Amino acid sequence: MLKLMRAVFTQKTHDGTTERLLQLALAYFATYILTGIFPKYFMNTAPGYPAMNDVQYMVYSTLFSSLFCVSLVIAWKWYKFQSQGRITVLGLTFPKEFLYIIPSGVCTAVVIPTTTLMYLLPISVMVAMIIMRASIIIISRIIDSIQIRQGILTKTVYWEENVAVAFALFAVALQLLNFKGAITFSRAAAGLTASLKQLFVFYPNNFAFITNVTAMTILTSYIIAYAIRIYIMNYFKNTRTKGVPYDNKGFFAVEQLSASATMILAACAVVFLMTPDAVNPKDFVANFQSSFSVPHAQWFKAALAGIPYGIGAFFSVFLFMFKGRTATFSGLVNRLTSLIAGTIATLVVFFLMAAKPPKPEDWIGLVVIFIAIYFLSLAEKKRACELAKTHEVEPESDSTIVCAPLKEQLP
C-alpha cells in the first residue's frame, strides 16, 4: 500500500493504470471539498457572511468556472482533436466525433443549472442530493447493459461492481431515514417489534414535489441530460479503434467549448427575453437578472470561488471516461468520491461556521461507502490484470498489483 501511494503522489503515471485512477480520484476529492464549502460560506445568512441567494452564487461561480475551463483548454490547445475520421457537412469538414461530442456539451449546459435549480424547488436539499447521486449510479449501470447488448462494450461488468452498486445505493438511501428512533431503542418497553418500528421512520412528505410540474420538469431534464452525456462518454471510450489515440482531453475541450456557448446563449435569453415575476422573491428569472443589474457586493469573490468547481470538472470527466473501465465502475468512483468529500466538507463547515454537524445517517452511510469501495478495489485489481494481459494499458514498472499468470493455451 505504501508503495502504491508513493507512486500516486510522486510519479507521472500511465493512462489507464490504477495509480492514475487514484491520482484523479484524490484530485477530484480535494476540489469537491472546496466546492462543498464555498456555497455554505457565501449563502450563509448569519451576521458577517455574504448572504447571497442560490441564483446569485450560481451565476457568479459558474461564470469563472466555465471561463477557467475554456481558457485552459484553449491555452493548452486541447481542441486539436485526434479523430478517427473526418466528415463534411454543408461544406464544413470536421472530426466525425463532433457529431456527438457537441450534443454532450449541450447536455452539460443543461446539467449545470438544473443541479442548482434542484435546490430551489419545493424539495429538501437532502432529497435533491439523493436523487442526483443515485440517478448517476443507476444510469451508469443501465448504460453498460445497453452498450453490451449493442456490442459497443465488450467487457464484462464484474459481480464485485454490482455489489458495490448495491452498497452505494444503500448508503445514499440512508439519507431518507430518521435515526432518532435508535436513541430510544434501548428504552423501548413494548417489545422488539415495536422498537424496530421506531428505528427507521420514512418521510413521505419529502416526495410531495412529484405533483409539482416545474419540479418534475427540472428533475427529468437533469436525469435525461446526464444519461445522454454518460452514454456519449462511454460510446466515445468504447469505440476507439486500435491505433487511434484515446484523446479524452480533446473530448473535454470540445464538450466544454460547446457547453459554454450554450450557457451564454441561455443566459442571454433569460436576461433579455424572459419576464420576471416581481411579486415572488424566489423567482428564478428575477434573481438571475438582478445578479447582473444589481450585482452583489462580493460577486467577484464568489466568482473566484467557482474556480475549484472548474478544476474539479477536469477530474470528474476524466474519471467518467477512465480508460478500460465500465460505466458502472467509473460512475461509482466518481459518485463515491463526491459523497466522502461532501461529508468532509460538512465537518469543515461545522467547525468553522458553526453549522449543523453530520447526522448519524451520514456516518453510517460513510461506513457503507467504504464497504462499496472495498468491492470496487477487488474489481479494479481484476480489471487491471485483464487490461495488462490484453496490452490495453501499460502497467507501472513498480506496480504493486500481482496478477495470476496467463493460462497455457491447449493445442
Structure commentary:
The chain is an all-alpha fold. The chain has one domain (23-178, 212-373). Helix content is 65%, strand content 3%. The chain has 15 helices and four strands. It has helices spanning 2-10, 18-42, 54-75, 98-117, 125-150, 159-173, 180-183, 192-199, 213-238, 248-273, 284-293, 299-305, 307-320, 327-353, 360-389, and strands at 86-89, 92-95, 177-178, 201-202. Strands 1-2 form a two-stranded antiparallel sheet. It has a two-stranded antiparallel sheet with strand order 3-4. Helix 2 (18-42) packs antiparallel against helix 13, helix 3 packs across helix 10 and helix 5 (125-150) packs parallel to helix 9. The chain starts with a helix and ends in a 22-residue tail after the last helix. The model is unreliable at 179-190 and 195-203 (pLDDT under 50).
